[in-house]
Structure formats: structure tokens, C-alpha cells
Amino acid sequence: SYGISFQAPLYVSKIFRLREKLALLSHKSEIARQINLVNRQAAVVSLNSAYHYLSELDIAIDARLKSLAQTHDDLALKVKNGRTPEAELMKIDNSIITLQEQKNDLADKILNVQRDLKNFTDLVVDEPVPMNLAEMPAEGKIIGLTLEKTSLAAQEKEVERSHAERLPAVVAHGTLSGNDGEAYNTESHIFREYSFAGVELSVPLFDKTLSTDESIAIIAAKKARQRLKDTEIELMAREKNLKARLPVVEKSRQLAEKSVKNNADLLNIARVSYDSGRTTTEEYLRYEAQVFTSQANLAGAIDAKWQIITKLAVLYGTDLRGVVK
To answer: At what angle do helices 281-316 and 13-80 cross, to 10 degrees?
Structure first.
């Protein structure tokens, strides 16, 4: 004896809708992986930029401490000789202590950045990695919107699939079977065939769960549609803000560079005036503070530019390996 059965859908609408939905979900998964990759790259670049910023502040503080230490030593001789009140020396000491407190605070922040970089890269980063801008992230489609549009398209296919569950399905089926052998009692040859084939039309008329599933899918699609609208408003506003801020931050960097030079020149003049007694301690310390402030502003502007660049890369889903070198 032998036998084989077969069943094959000739037309089942839900299968085609399901196939389309799965293709969209696969594409959505690829987009999500790209977003995750760029987010991790952006986090590393952002942390490294912050590391540069903190390191530049630390270097600026060291320069001010060195400058004030020299002033302190010169002033200590004047105090010892009775030419200057000791209170003036204490003012210098207070400024040194303030800078040392700031330096200690920076050390704590640097440790935190090193920890976060270790978490992302599994590397111990003892100093910030030099970075140069190879090119700006290319403007294009906002990847977050692409993700939401793909998600909506997949959900709309689910609506179509759940609706197709209620449509008739045409299925071919059949059996090929028979007996070929000798009769056990007469030993005569016997051949019998029981094969048949047919087409079946299946119409789900009384399955109430199908209507419920379709309603759930429609509600989910409405939510996905609203989420797309909300995301579009949010991300378009973010893109506009970042693009508008970029030239402003660049202008701040240029101004900060000029300020650093000017304040360094003014400090040199103030130091000569202070040594000759034509400038008070408070005025001299103000020039020291202005140099540090301008250096901090420059480092901050550079960091702010990198933060904008990384956010634009995340917005467009741009691989930062082509942006940063």
C-alpha cells in the first residue's frame, strides 16, 4: 500500500498581507540596528568631546595656578620686607585655593567620563582621543521618521491581514493512495487506487474573534499614525534648532579665540602694573580670572559644536566613522 496527501493554498489573501508585513518588519529591524549603532558612536564622540573640554579646563587652571604661584612668591617677599600688607597675600592664597577646588572638581568629572567611555568601548581611556572633523553629517531623511513610517506601514499591513482573515480562502487538496499486492487468502494480484483531488472554498462566517482582531489592529494603526505625526513635529523642530545653532556656536568659538588672546595680553600688562604697585590685587586677580573664563568659553564652544555634530548624525542616521577622524 502507499499513500500521500497534499494541501496547497491557491488564493489566501492573508498570506500575501502577512508576507508584506514581515518584509516591512525586517526593514524596520535594520533601521533600528542602524539607529542603535549611530547612537553608540555618538555617545562615544560626545563623551570624548566632553573629556577634551574638561582636560582643557584642567590645563587652563594649571596655567593660572602657575601664574599665581609666581605672583605669590614675589608678593611674599614684599610682605616679608614690610612693603605690602599680609592681607594682600591672603587674597592671592584665596584665589589659589578656589582654583585648586575647581581642579579637584574637574578630576571627579574626568573620572566619571572615563568610566562612561569604558562602559561604551571596554577600553581604559587615560586621555581624550584627538578628533578632527572629516565632513559634516550629510543632510537627508531623518532616520527616526523613516523608522516610524515603516512601523506604520507594517501596522497598516496588519490591518489588511486581519481583514483578509474574514475573506474566503481557496485551497487545493487531495490524496494519492492505493494497494498493490497479493491477496492473503487467494494469492491473486490486487491493485486498488483511492486517489482524489479537489478545491475547497473556506468562508469564516461565524468567527467573532476575527472582527475583534481587526478592531485591535485598526486602533494600533491609529496610534502609530499619531505617533508618526508627533515624532515628525519633534524631530523637524530638533533639526531646525540644531542647524540654526551651528553657525552661532561657530561664531562663539571665533570670538572666544580672540578673547583668549586679548585677555592674555591684558594680563601681561596688568602683571607689570601690579609689580610696580599701579594696580590693586583685586584688579590683577580680575585679569587672571578673565583669562581663565575666556579659555573656558573657547573649550565650551568647541565642545558645543561637537555635541551639535553628533546630534545631527543621530538625526540623519549617519555613520560617524565617515564624519570624525
So the answer is: 170
